[in-house]
Amino acid sequence: MFRKILIANRGEIACRVMRTARRMGVKTVAVYSDADAKALHVAMADEAVHIGPSPVSESYLRAEKIIEAALATGAEAIHPGYGFLSENPDFVDKVTAAGLVFIGPSAASIRAMGLKDAAKALMEKAGVPVVPGYHGDTQALVLLATKAREIGYPVLIKARAGGGGKGMRRVDRPDDFADALAGAKREAKSAFGDDHVLIEKYVDKPRHIEVQVFGDNLGNAVHLFERDCSAQRRHQKVIEEAPAPGMTPELRAAMTDAAVKAAKAIRYSGAGTIEFIVDSSKGLKADRFWFMEMNTRLQVEHPVTEMVTGVDLVEWQLRVAAGEQLPKSQEEIRLNGHAFEARLYAEDAAKGFLPATGTLHHLKFPAAPPGGNVRVETGVRAGDAISPYYDPMIAKLVAHGPDRASALALLVDTLETTEVAGSVTNLAFLAALAGDADFAAGDVDTGLIGRKQDSLTALPAPDPEIVAAAVLAASGLDRRVPSNDPWSALAGYAHFHPVAQRMKLRFGDQDILTAVTVEGGIAKVSVEATAPLPVEGRVRPKAGGGVAAAGSNASLQALQRGNDESHTAAAPPSVGFADVSPSRGERRLAKWPGHITIFNGAVGYDFAVPDPLDRADETEAAGSMRAPMPGLVKLVRAGRGDVVKKGQPLLILEAMKMEHTIAATHDGEIAEIASEGSQVTDGTVLVRFVETA
Ligand code: ADP
Ligand code: ADP
Ligand code: MG
């Protein structure tokens, strides 16, 4: 076994690899960029080497720097994690040429599977069913459009060099083909430097089922059963599980046979995944699955396989790379129970899963219950930042149970006891998905999230108790020790005259005016809306009025201590009541600069507490649109003087390796618009509208 290895990656996967290495007595070397100087993976490693500035092209993708670091520290092998250099055969060649071991497959295997078109041709030859479509060399628009018509709509245009769901466009009608092709090619060119595409039949009611394979250098290859990754948004996995729900013995036998055949066809060594697309429109049928691609590396979702097989895949990677035989034969690999993995990201699900950045001021994961059936894989700690340079993943939450229902219940529990504040996250969306009836029934195809996107991503409005809890926390009253003595419980407040403390909170783009009154040791919270009240729907609006009316005194009173019946009686008919007495149990909340986050299940309600002295953030001009994140202005579709309609695409911002269409937030005439090719930072004005009187 190696004595020391270098991990050429960051984040959770670097930490994950180090954990196994440590258990095996193997020393670890981390590499890091400027942005990661204080990152968890650096702190965890035995040694760490700085390799450059924050952008990946200047750090984690610099093969020479990384190899130099390995040689300088005396590491014998390099583990690439996933992403970055993990599927780069030139890197493997360089590692090998430097006399080091690459913990992964041979450069030849990676090359064979690297381009989706060549891989499909190879698999066809090996007798593995491939998705019907065109994967030839000619790229002329006319020919591709003709092929698409022959294949039959809907079709999927795919970048042959693609990965992570990028460079992919579903096309439903011939009229849309040319535009979609241009978009796919543009995205592929910038993400992979190769705009070659293939066209596939878009499979009906598609399910993504993949098989984990493992080979060694002695010619053995096994599978470790399947994972279902059908819960996807924009062709990216959201929740994965093993085994696949509803899997039949016939389909499993056919898929795992095909996967092992594929691995053997390229004399595969190490961990790999054969991804298949399955037509589930008539149930799971053994002749309705096709090869999509092979990922020649450890997969993000490998923990679900580990949970159901009891195998540490990273340990196997190290053993195989060190020349050992596969630790288990096919017969010794058994399925045990069911496991789920949910990917927790800093992203705004309601805004089309827009990646987000921010400092994780508060980060709390559930304490793992005994028995090891919950696993939290993370590369960040409270106080760490999600930067725009890398994938905005915060953690992977993994749950295992004896059957699917219990594993899912444990996953929901895990999601509902996780707390993140400081950046928007997809936590509530994950919980909504995990709690969805179709998902719970195992009726999941890759279109499920898209069909239910609005309901899955809608943030439930905070009920009055939550608003009141935020107000109390913002005023500091939640900190008072509950006591029978009103003098000590609410010291500092007069008890003879009610003292009102006025405060403004902001929830999303809504202002909430509140007042806390302390009288006789009881704090009452009243809420006045100046904008549509978030509590709408819960609190009945005044007759004829509606809570949206400016100045309407809709809302609620919250009693901090005791239950004062007289308030209930005195309340106007439309007023909602909330008892936030501390005796009802502690609210889970986080206070961070300028904000209060109240946790309720998997939902984190973020209330901004604007500094009354700072007027700047209150008067955000309605006449401008700002960049939601740092990026590159890729394409500008409107110019000064253009009159545009709300929803009209104005420009494309490329950020975090994805293209984001920025559409007009309202009707208006453009006064100014960012120029094509300009680099913008978070908050830069992209579009300024002509002010209307
Ligand atoms: P695929 O989408 O290629 O089938 P996965 O779902 O396993 O496979 O996603 C792998 C993707 O994760 C990579 O293609 C890459 O875009 C992204 N990635 C790369 N490095 C990291 C990292 N350190 N942390 C999180 N994500 C990463
Ligand atoms: P990537 O390298 O980006 O992971 P894949 O070829 O694995 O690309 O496809 C990503 C996802 O797109 C799949 O998981 C699946 O949901 C969807 N997909 C791919 N091919 C098809 C197809 N022919 N029909 C329907 N959906 C598909
Ligand atoms: Mg894939």
Characterize the structure shown.
The chain has 693 residues and is α+β, with helices and mostly antiparallel strands. The protein folds into six domains: 4-103, 3-Layer(aba) Sandwich (Rossmann fold), CATH 3.40.50.20; 132-201, 2-Layer Sandwich (Dna Ligase, domain 1); 203-336, ATP-grasp fold, B domain (D-amino Acid Aminotransferase, Chain A, domain 1, 2-Layer Sandwich); 344-457, 2-Layer Sandwich (D-amino Acid Aminotransferase, Chain A, domain 1), CATH 3.30.470; 464-608, no CATH class; 625-689, RNA polymerase II/Efflux pump adaptor protein, barrel-sandwich hybrid domain (OB fold (Dihydrolipoamide Acetyltransferase, E2P), Beta Barrel), CATH 2.40.50.100. The protein has 19 helices and 39 strands. β35 (649-655) and β36 (658-663) form a beta hairpin. α4 runs antiparallel to α5 and α12 runs antiparallel to α13 (427-434). One adenosine-5'-diphosphate binds at residues 9-11, 13, 81-84, 163-165, 237, 295, 299-300, 391, 393.
